[in-house]
Amino acid sequence: MCFNASLAQSADKLKRLFYADIDSSRLEQIYFMSAFALPYWPVLKSEDYRNFQFLTWGLIPHWEKNMEAARNIRLKTLNARFETLHERVSYRAPADYKRCAVVVDGYFEWQELNGKKYPYYLSLPRKKPFLLAGLWDRWVNRVNGQTLETFSVVTTRARGIAEQIHNTKKRMPFILDESSAALWLDRHNVFADIQDRLNPSWEDLRAHRVSNLLTSRTQKTNVPEVQEEIP
Q1: Using an 8 Å Cβ cutoff, are 76 and 60 in contact?
Q2: What DSSP character marks residue 95?
């Protein structure tokens, strides 16, 4: 799955790579962040893929009736399985009309060996930022009128080095190359029409072992050291 990611890049670099504007004042250096913290994250919506917008990780379907229900569901919608997007009521409409791309420069996953789990950091060469397929939705609190825009990261069957690392559930985020991103972010495409034409990118992924710092409850985890390679 994809519950832990990083994005420690400048606004200028993101603008150059993705031809999209971004509010640099809202962009933080994220070396490690858990989706369970429900962080704000820059994404490109299919309705406006020339501007990064900051949405909260953990999708709240627009039809949820109250804040309690919204809080309960969002920790269950951090990820959405590509294979069953049209089978889940939370994702069916967003898969057609509210797709997005989530920008990261790496993510963390655990490998299980002999009953123990070891953390790894997966990224592209030189930590080049890349896009993950995502879904978003807009929810309005009927009590106070507050609007929340939230998202979920789409996952798929792990391939290549991602399969070697995540060797239990064997899942990985759906990484979008340039052609898949164009299909995914075209708001005129419904999911059924592009599903078989979308292929996750994985060939350039690299992975290295990192320390258990990212699971510390006493030390800061959003620091560059969390990504450092260890033997």
Answers
A1: no
A2: H
**Which contiguous run of DSSP H or E holds residue 111?**
strand 106-113
For 146-221, strand residue ranges (E) read: 147-157, 171-173, 175-176, 206-209
| pLDDT for res 143 | 85
Look at strands 48-57 and 147-157 and give their pairing: parallel
What is the phi-psi region of residue 164: left when phi exceeds 0, alpha when psi lies from -120 to 50, beta otherwise?
alpha
This model's pTM is above 0.85: yes
Model confidence at 145, pLDDT cuts 50, 70, 90, reads confident
Beta bridge partners of 167: none
* Alpha helices (H) along 142-177: 160-165
What is the DSSP code string of 62-129?
Answer: TT--SHHHHHHHHTT-SEEEGGGTTTSHHHHHHHHH-EEEEEESEEEEEEEETTEEEEEEEE-GGG--
Domains of the chain from N-terminus onward? 4-227 (3.90.1680.10)
**pLDDT of 161-199, one tens digit each?**
999 999 999 999 999 999 999 999 999 999 999 999 999
- What are the angstrom distances between the C-alpha of 98 and each of 9, 108, 138, 165, 191? 26, 26, 9, 31, 10
Segments in 110-211 forming alpha helices (H): 160-165, 178-184, 191-194
The 10s digit of each residue's pLDDT in 57-87 is 999 999 999 999 999 999 999 999 999 999 9
**What pLDDT does residue 142 have?**
87
Number of neighbours of residue 24 by Cβ within 10 angstroms: 11
